[in-house]
Write a structure and sequence with these properties.
This protein has 436 residues and is mainly beta. 7% of the residues lie in helices and 57% in strands. The protein has a 22-stranded mixed sheet that branches. The longest helix is centred in the first third of the chain and has 17 residues.
């Protein structure tokens, strides 16, 4: 079967290359990276070595687009991942298939002023604070001169695939519906308001929410937000606000849980010629009382991805984040950043960033373990720490870049949790990358 599949793929490639040039235009592209890095003390202590890692990994992405004419394209993106030495292509023989993925496969076409993308595709909403991921769905965007109005449907879960034995398997479907028009004002300001609605008749069948919602059924969740982006000549500024509402009903009846989280973020940069100064900050609410029926924490069921610092927020080496840090899933956290980038020569760039982050709502710890709020003898902890990140980027040869990274977290009490063997997390690594 495997050989038959390879033969079919090879035949299709031959056919695509022999089609007359007037019939179809083929575009090829891609991305490649190899990372050498180590994470140390990410648990906030230096005895268990539970999250320590030293290794090398490689990612390859290959893109193929068939352009039939100006109103129709067929887009495909493939991805291959391996950690050196693993059994999915990183070992001797290098013929593993476990980490080969089809990231995108969709038709991109125009019907009058409306652009359609139908299939497996990617999208970003609110800079990733809401969604930045690949999905199966449809995007339809009405394109005006100074505005666009995209409508988005994401089919997040097919109930039959996760609950085939149930006669009500369709009840377990989960869908996102969104509208996010973009308006340009005098080439200086762009505004993007949005409304996103997430619905499932029985969300208990979706593994993504099992740990958060437990035995719940009907989910009515919505997000209303605004992005603002300003071009200030020598610099730029941006702002994002998202409010979360709706509710979810428990299985078997009873009081529903009401959502009421929010996120606010802003940032900007100033170009000073040979260097720039940049900064940002964000606040995502936490839940102040886990025992009540109000879920006040800002929470997105799936699709959210916002990278920030190297250790607490994934960064370049996104294998793990330090203890209790949210990584790219921004919720129950606030953080501020100030940094600068210097370009002493065309091929060299040096970026230094300082981050401070803490939890929006405390966690409670006793004897090195988290406990429920109000536990006698427990201590409230919230500071994740102060992080220093240094990234040096150099173009080794044309199109091939080398990033050298060093990051150190002066850990706060929420990271170390008062462990007697507490230690500060640090990360060192290098990345080779190219795109075409």
């Amino acid at each position: 079967m495997k050989r038959f599949g390879i033969a079919i793929l090879a035949a299709l490639m031959v056919v695509s290359l022999t089609i007359p040039a007037w019939a179809i235009e083929s575009q090829f592209g891609g991305y490649w990276r190899t990372r050498f890095f180590t994470n140390q003390n990410f648990t906030g202590e230096d005895q268990t070595e539970a999250m320590d890692f030293v290794g090398v990994d490689t990612r390859t992405r290959l893109y193929y687009t068939a352009i039939f004419h100006e109103n129709l394209k067929f887009v495909n993106k493939f991805e291959f991942n391996t950690t050196w030495g693993d059994t999915n292509g990183g070992d001797i023989g290098a013929d593993g298939t476990g980490h080969i993925r089809v990231k995108n496969s969709y038709a991109d076409f125009n019907t009058g002023p409306v652009n359609w993308k139908v299939g497996i595709q990617g999208a970003a909403l609110h800079r990733g604070f809401l969604v930045d991921d690949d999905f199966s769905g449809v995007r339809a965007a009405y394109m005006g001169d100074t505005f666009s109005i995209p409508f988005l449907w994401i089919h997040a879960n097919e109930g039959f695939s996760t609950n085939a034995a149930s006669k009500d398997s369709n009840d377990y479907d989960v869908d996102y519906y969104g509208i996010y028009p973009t308006f340009s004002i005098a080439d200086m300001l762009t505004l993007t308001p949005s409304f996103t609605y997430v619905y499932s008749k029985n969300v208990a069948g979706w593994p993504k929410t099992a740990g958060k919602l437990g035995a719940m059924e009907e989910l009515n969740l919505w997000f209303a937000g605004l992005d603002a982006d300003a071009d200030l000549g020598m610099g730029s500024a941006w702002f994002t606000f998202i409010y979360e509402g709706g509710d979810v009903d428990p299985a078997g009846g009873g009081d529903s849980t009401d959502f009421g989280g929010y996120l606010v973020a802003l940032g900007g940069s100033v170009d000073m010629g040979m260097f720039d100064i940049h900064g940002q900050g964000f606040y995502a609410s936490g839940d102040d009382d886990a025992a009540d029926n109000d879920e006040d924490a800002f929470w997105v069921p799936a699709g959210q991805s916002y990278y920030w610092s190297e250790i607490m927020g994934y960064g370049i080496f996104d294998r793990s984040a330090s203890r209790n840090a949210p990584a790219d899933q921004i919720g129950n956290v606030w953080a501020v950043n100030l940094g600068a980038t210097v370009k002493p020569m065309d091929k060299l760039k040096v970026t230094l960033d300082l981050w401070y982050a803490a939890l929006a709502e405390d966690i409670y710890v006793m004897n090195g373990a988290q406990v429920a709020q109000g536990t006698v003898g427990s201590s409230a902890e919230d500071v994740l720490g102060t992080e220093v990140d240094l990234v040096i980027t150099y173009e080794l040869v044309q199109n091939l870049n080398l990033d050298v990274v060093g990051a150190y977290l002066f850990a706060g009490d929420a990271t170390t949790q008062d462990d007697p063997d507490d230690a500060n997390p640090y990360e060192i690594g290098a990345r080779l990358s190219l795109s075409f």
